[in-house]
């Protein structure tokens, strides 16, 4: 299975030597559940490289970004159009953080810079039941967060699959072929810690929020659980169209 990584943001150059860029980060995350997955990057933010077709990969992940979905960037609207086209083609999509937000906007929702401020550190999310790719008896998961923007209006027909006291629409699902989450299951502890330190103070993360966030990093996260769920989602979503073609 080939997963295309739509790279809408970049790891800060100062952090690349220790943590690498986003595409290998997501490849390593997916390999927690399936080492055979192939991951190929599409540089959206620097090269404006929108895929020519939804079928250029078996499924797509939209990464996080320092940009907002409301920013007047030349690739925002083409990316939204590609996501709508991909959903219509029943090619599976997973959005992470910014990816969660732009998928919601593309499908008719609304995203703003929240008056709740920064969400960072390890947050606990309540998970909905009934999704076939969510296996095991897990009512909550702990995941790294790093965002100011939030989805404040979900698209019509979207299901809420994750929520927290800080972020009501922290996870959304659309039919059987698209889902998105606000937190970052691809982040490791060291990367989250370095991001907090880098963004702390000045016009960035207030000192009290940053200090509290650093303390939460000792909780541990459920990256393996999320990797299993997301890979299961891709596997189910890519199997169904094949079954439909074979039975036609």
| Largest sheet geometry | 9 strands, mixed
Percent strand:
15-25%
Number of strand elements: 11
Radius of gyration: 17 Å
Count of domains:
1
Span of the ends, CA to CA: 23 Å
Strand order of the largest sheet: 2-1-3-4-11-10-9-6-7
Count of helical regions: 7
- Please identify which CATH superfamily we are dealing with: Class I glutamine amidotransferase (GATase) domain
Helix content: 25-40%
- Could you say what the CATH architecture is? 3-Layer(aba) Sandwich
The assigned structural class equals alpha/beta
Encode the helix/strand succession as letters: EHHEEHEHEEEEEEEHHH
Shape: globular
Q: How would you portray this structure in words?
A:
By secondary structure, the protein is an alpha/beta fold. The protein has one domain: Rossmann fold (3-Layer(aba) Sandwich). Helices cover 33% and strands 24% of the residues. It has a nine-stranded mixed β-sheet, sandwiched between helices. The chain has a two-stranded antiparallel ribbon with strand order 5-8. β9 and β10 form a beta hairpin. The model is unreliable at 242-248 (pLDDT under 50).
Give the helices and strands, then pairings.
Blueprint: E1 2-7, H1 16-19, H2 22-31, E2 38-43, E3 59-62, H3 76-88, E4 93-96, H4 98-106, E5 110-113, E6 119-127, E7 140-147, E8 149-153, E9 159-163, E10 171-174, E11 178-181, H5 189-199, H6 207-216, H7 223-247
Parallel strand pairs: 1-2, 1-3, 3-4, 4-11
Antiparallel strand pairs: 5-8, 6-7, 6-9, 9-10, 10-11
Helix pairs in contact: 3-4
């Amino acid at each position: 299975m080939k997963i295309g990584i739509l790279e809408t943001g970049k790891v800060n150059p100062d952090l690349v030597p220790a943590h690498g860029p986003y595409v290998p980060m997501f490849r390593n995350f997916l390999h927690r559940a399936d080492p055979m997955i192939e991951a190929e990057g599409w540089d959206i933010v620097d090269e404006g490289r929108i895929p020519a077709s939804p079928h250029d990969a078996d499924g797509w992940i939209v990464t996080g970004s320092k940009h907002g979905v409301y920013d007047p960037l030349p690739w925002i609207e083409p990316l939204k159009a590609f996501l709508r086209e991909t959903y219509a083609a029943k090619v599976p999509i997973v959005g992470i953080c910014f990816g969660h937000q732009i998928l919601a906007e593309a499908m008719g929702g609304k995203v703003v810079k929240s008056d709740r401020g920064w969400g960072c550190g390890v947050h606990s999310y309540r998970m909905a039941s009934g999704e076939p790719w969510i296996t095991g008896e897990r009512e909550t998961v702990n995941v790294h967060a790093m965002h100011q923007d939030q989805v404040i209006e979900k698209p019509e027909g979207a299901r809420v699959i994750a929520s927290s006291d800080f972020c009501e629409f922290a996870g959304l699902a659309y039919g059987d072929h698209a889902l998105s989450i606000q937190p970052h299951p691809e982040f490791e502890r060291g990367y989250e810690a370095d991001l907090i330190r880098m963004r702390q103070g000045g016009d960035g993360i207030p000192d009290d929020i940053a200090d509290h966030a650093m303390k939460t990093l000792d909780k541990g996260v459920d990256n393996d659980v999320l990797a299993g769920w997301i890979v299961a989602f891709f596997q189910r979503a890519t199997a169904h169209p094949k079954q439909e073609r074979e039975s036609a």
